[in-house]
Design brief:
Blueprint lengths: L12 H14 L3 H12 L6 E5 L2 H5 L7 E2 H5 L4 E5 L6 E5 L2 E5 L5 E3 L5 E2 L1 E5 L5 E5 L3 E2 H11 L6 E17 L9 H4 L4 E17 L10 E8 L5 E19 L1 E5 L16 H8 L11
Parallel strand pairs: 1-15
Antiparallel strand pairs: 1-8, 2-7, 3-4, 3-8, 4-5, 5-6, 9-14, 10-14, 11-12, 11-14, 12-13, 13-14
The structure holds zinc ion.
Zinc ion binds next to strand 13.
Length: 287
């Protein structure tokens, strides 16, 4: 684990005994209990992934935004998603939220813009890996598979580096009611060479497939914030990879509209592959 900040403070004997008892009964480390309890007391959900709507809803065509970007930024500084009427790709990095549109433009999204689907967290590196050789997307997936501690936790993935080739897409605006597979058939695709920037994304476990996009789902934003999108394929020259994992999930769900009558079972693997494009969106890492 990469050190974050070290807190050294005297506490009462009663608190110490209670902490030890909770750690024994719950199996959590004392550090985890302190972090989680402090976050709750200070009204922060620092270890949680904050999810807007579900993959089932977005694949079934529930595209109406209902959470503002301002609200989203209160729940994390790092993440991905889309905008109202799937008007492009959402990339949140270091607290700034960007919109990569189908015309190839990237702008900083205003706080009053709406999202129908997003996943954000507070990025912190539980693990850091340097890759100094060229690496393709399938190779990067396999490397990330090796470093995931479990199949059963969500992993936030940040990769900073240089890319020899990037194949990106940006969803075109579509009205609610069109399923995502149909809506993204006319997506805009872009290929870029020799570009520096950051991959931002998540690995979502199989059990959460109706909530998040199962497997790897990664977006990109360039260092100059001029190029961005959903990653379909890549060849990287070198990368610094940072991962953090959590099983604490908060979900904001619409309380009205198309969500209430949507089929929320979530996409099958073939549909995920067709829509998200990233090679074998959900693979067993042991095969
Ligand atoms: Zn995406």
């Amino acid at each position: 684990m990469v050190p974050r900040h070290l807190l050294t403070t005297p506490i009462s004997r009663e608190l110490w005994h209670a902490l030890q008892q909770r750690s024994r009964s719950s199996g959590q480390s004392i550090a985890d209990i302190v972090q989680r309890t402090l976050a709750e007391a200070l009204d922060l959900d620092h270890d949680a992934v904050f999810q807007v709507s579900t993959s089932g809803a977005i694949f079934d065509g529930v595209f109406e935004g209902f959470v503002t970007i301002g609200d989203l930024r209160r729940h994390g500084d790092f993440g991905i998603g889309t905008f109202d009427a799937i008007d492009g790709e959402l990339i949140m990095l270091d607290g700034h939220c960007y919109q990569a549109r189908s015309d190839g433009s990237v702008r900083q999204a205003p706080d009053d813009a709406l999202t129908p689907f997003a996943s954000v967290c507070w990025h912190q590196a539980d693990l850091r890996v340097e890759v100094r050789e060229p690496i393709s997307w399938p190779e990067l997936e396999r490397l990330l598979d090796q470093h995931r501690p479990t199949e059963n936790a969500t992993v936030g993935i940040r990769c900073d580096g240089r890319f020899d080739r990037l194949h990106l897409r940006a969803a075109c605006r579509a009205e609610s009611g069109t399923d995502l597979a149909t809506a993204t058939r006319g997506q805009a695709e872009f290929v870029h060479g020799r570009i520096s920037g950051t991959l931002v994304g998540f690995w979502t476990p199989a059990f959460a497939r109706s909530i998040g996009i199962p497997g790897y789902h990664v977006h990109f934003i360039s260092d100059d914030r001029a190029i961005g999108g959903h990653v379909l394929d890549l060849q990287a020259a070198n990368l610094t990879i940072e991962c953090n994992w959590t099983n604490d999930l908060r979900i904001a769900m619409p309380s009205q509209g198309a969500f209430l009558s949507a089929d929320l079972h979530g996409p099958d693997d073939a549909t995920v592959r067709a829509v998200e494009g990233q090679a074998a969106a959900f693979r067993d890492s042991r095969t």
